Amino acid sequence: MNEIAYQIEQALLALRDNKLRSLLSVLGLATGVAAVLLIAAVSEAGRLMIFAELDTFGLRSIWVYRNYNDKDPNRQISRGSQISTDDFRTIDMMCCPDVLEATPIVRDNSKTRR
Fold first, then answer.
1. pLDDT: is 23 or 101 the higher one?
2. How far apart are the C-alpha atoms of 38 and 85, rounded to whole Å?
3. CA separation (Å) from 22 to 6, 16, 17, 27, 28?
4. pLDDT digits (tens, 9 = 90+) for 27-38
5. Does residue 36 lie within any of the structural domains?
6. Which residue has the higher pLDDT, 17 or 65?
7. CA distances from 101 to 53, 66, 80, 107 (A)
8. Distance (Å, rounded) from C-alpha 16 to C-alpha 11?
9. pLDDT in tens, 58-113
10. Whole-number Å distance between alpha carbons of 38 and 26
11. Average pLDDT, stretch 17-24?
């Protein structure tokens, strides 16, 4: 017999003599491969879910807001846009035909920590 055939015969004899050890080895390999595939699938699903959520904001979105905490009307630099409800309606309905959607969001900042 040549060397390769002898080694294959020895391996088959070892498998036959140690059936439980062979079964446990195969079971361990299958469990390891399944765990790696499961982790890959869960991480890919999470990545897709995050990108789908970020995609809802859109790449061509503009966020306009009003700062209600600014009490000084003479201030030269003000935060926010000072946009009113009438301004929103004008943007949404009249002035800008390229604006596909406009959504007003009301946020209560009165309980903000300082």
1. 23
2. 50
3. 20, 8, 9, 9, 10
4. 999 999 999 999
5. yes
6. 17
7. 18, 19, 20, 19
8. 9
9. 666 666 655 556 666 655 554 545 566 777 777 777 777 777 777 666 555 555 55
10. 18
11. 91
In this structure, what token pair is assigned to residue 46? Answer: 């999470």
Q: What is the DSSP letter of 56?
A: T
Looking at the structure, tell me whether residues 7 and 51 fall in a common domain.
yes
51 with 71, same domain?
A: no
* Domain total of the chain: 2
Domain boundary among 33, 55, 77: 55
**pTM > 0.90:** no
CA atoms within 13 A of residue 12's CA, in its CB half-sphere: 6
Contacts (Cβ under 8 Å, ≥6 apart) of 78: 67, 70
CA–CA separation, 12 vs 45, rounded Å?
42
Whether 114 is in a domain gets the answer no
